Amino acid sequence: MAISFEIIHKDIAGRIGKLKVGERTIRTPALLPVVNPHLPLVTPREMQEMGVEALITNAYIFNRSTEFRERALAEGLHAVLDFDGVIMTDSGSFQLSVYGEVEVTNRDTLEFQQAIGSDIVVPLDIPTPPGTDRETARAELAVTMERIREGQALFPEAHLAGPVQGGIYTDLREEAGAAVQELGFTFCPIGAVVPLMESYRYKELVEVVLAAKRGLSPATCIHLFGAGHPSMFALAVAMGCDLFDSAAYALFAREGRYITTHGSLKVDELAELPCACRVCRTHTAEELKKSPDRERLLALHNLYVTLAEIARIRQAIQDGTLWELVDERCRSHPRLLAGYRELLKHAPELEVQDRASKRRFFYRGDESCFRTEVLRYHQMIPRITLGERVLISFDGRELPGFDTVLGFKPPFGPYPPELGETFPVGQSEIPEYDDAMVRSGCAGIRSLMAAHPESRFTVRCGAAWATVVREEVPGAEVYDEQV
């Protein structure tokens, strides 16, 4: 049976979905913990009991292992790992990215992954790191595409992933996405992005992922290779990523690092354990530091936190509050904030995928003015029917002599009374007016004026905002009596 992906709920470009792989199904967004059979701080069976529905392991390691190779061939991955969910295997591309070469061919790794019963098989794609020149990136992309086609030809019935490469070159990423889509793939990992995340280059990460998605179908399930820290999951989901694989829970534990949703802390510097997971509620900070089982306990905590963030994101998508979560998470680090602002620059393409109605709109600063809901409202404004003389009132009070009276709710702008209780105007919470939100609202007034050149507009704003309104809406009469 083929891989299929069903989208259940949407918010921004994020999706709650069902990824069906053969007879097994994964709820998305989902985390695939990385499992090294030689160093399991948390066993796959324990992961499954924690709610993990899929994991990823390295076929290259299994293939080179004197301990596990023959067992995997004889018993299959699910029996060796004691895991009933979906198992995805990396082809050896990780080793290729680290060491520059691997002692295996594309055909070898594809045949081995099939033989050990991998649920999702990955070709030996070429991970092009940042800093690679365009000519090399294009040549490596051509090799990757050749290997993907080879995989399809060799194993037409396999659950084959279609990796999207192209380095940091957005045109190559888009080209690669389109090429993979043309081959009919439903499941596409975006590769070679770990160096961007390790160096906190989230702005470029957003550019790369959105470029790849422009080439792919909106119905394609997207796996972001190597995205392991929960602080950036909300941003990645908002871009349209559905699956993440993480070794961070174990790697950080070995380094004595305690993961939170806003970063990681050195456990030796903690006086308290600010978490509600089972590990943190059954140990004090001092007990955790001194425990002979410290690495394993830290790995369990890190995995609990990571899985909880995935659940939090799924709930935010269901509620239509993903923007608020992205805003909250991305303010934990300046580079994440840069990624968030880059994402907002792509609001026009995100708006097409976003849902029309949501539970609420919380204004959280200047960035909120560029959200998809504001853009969509400004696109809708020209459809408002007007008379000859139009009053837009900041405080809702009327003046005599007008055919149409509209309210004003920044950052959206003017609205007729009939829309006062509908989304987004009626479900938006804003603080006292600030400069950014009023200027955004004035952009809505300009849209309305452009659509109705036959009408005359007066804005009742009071002295506090008269200067801003005159700057932003030069064609309107400004009534600046104090309101």
TrEMBL record:
Its cofactor is Zn(2+). One of its GO terms (molecular function) is pentosyltransferase activity. It is an enzyme of class 2 (transferase). InterPro entries: ArchSynthase1/Queuine_TRR, TGT-like_sf, TgtA, tRNA_ribo_trans-like. Keywords: Glycosyltransferase, Metal-binding, Transferase, tRNA processing, Zinc. The active site is at 90 (nucleophile). Binds 1 zinc ion per subunit. Substrate binds at residues 125, 192. GO terms for cellular component: cytoplasm. Exchanges the guanine residue with 7-cyano-7-deazaguanine (preQ0) at position 15 in the dihydrouridine loop (D-loop) of archaeal tRNAs. PANTHER family: QUEUINE TRNA-RIBOSYLTRANSFERASE (PTHR46499:SF1). Belongs to the archaeosine tRNA-ribosyltransferase family. This is tRNA-guanine(15) transglycosylase. It comes from Methanoculleus taiwanensis. The lineage of its organism: Archaea, Methanobacteriati, Methanobacteriota, Stenosarchaea group, Methanomicrobia. The gene is tgtA.
